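sry for the spam today, last one i promise. struct tokens for design, 147 residues
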């Protein structure tokens, strides 16, 4: 088995990285040993975001992140549910509207996309978010052009 330079096996499941120039094996501190063994069991990004939401269901960043993870995992209906909850909890979170609208367009659900994007445009205007207004406005124009 290939190992990066400076890596040895102390025990069957404990990875040890030696400082340069240090010869032989060394014992790991309990903290370091736990860190290396926990890497093998580290949660996925989705699990981490779900845990954050369990602790704080109104965490906008975690809700948006989970929705995006679901989009990337092709779990579109679940993602749309997360975007909908985001818009209920944080009606001014314009990125949620934009991403939900883009997903609906990819799913060829144009009327739903238009409704979501119009709400997002209103939110962007209320917030004075020019960048979001341009992005969402461009998506709405695309819908109109492809009618």
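last one done:
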């Amino acid at each position: 088995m290939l190992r990066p330079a400076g890596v040895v096996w102390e025990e069957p499941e404990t990875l040890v990285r030696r400082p340069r120039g240090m010869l032989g094996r060394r014992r790991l501190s309990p903290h370091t040993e736990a860190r290396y063994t926990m890497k093998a069991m580290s949660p996925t990004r989705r699990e981490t975001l779900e845990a954050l939401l369990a602790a704080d269901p109104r965490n906008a960043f975690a809700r948006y992140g989970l929705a995006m993870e679901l989009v990337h995992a092709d779990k579109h209906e679940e993602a749309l549910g997360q975007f909908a909850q985001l818009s209920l909890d944080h009606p001014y979170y314009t990125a949620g509207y934009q991403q939900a609208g883009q997903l609906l367009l990819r799913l060829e659900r144009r009327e739903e996309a238009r409704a979501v994007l119009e709400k997002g445009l209103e939110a962007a205007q209320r917030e004075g978010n020019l960048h979001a207004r341009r992005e969402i406005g461009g998506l709405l124009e695309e819908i109109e052009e492809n009618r």
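The longest strand covers residues 7-11. ok im logging off now
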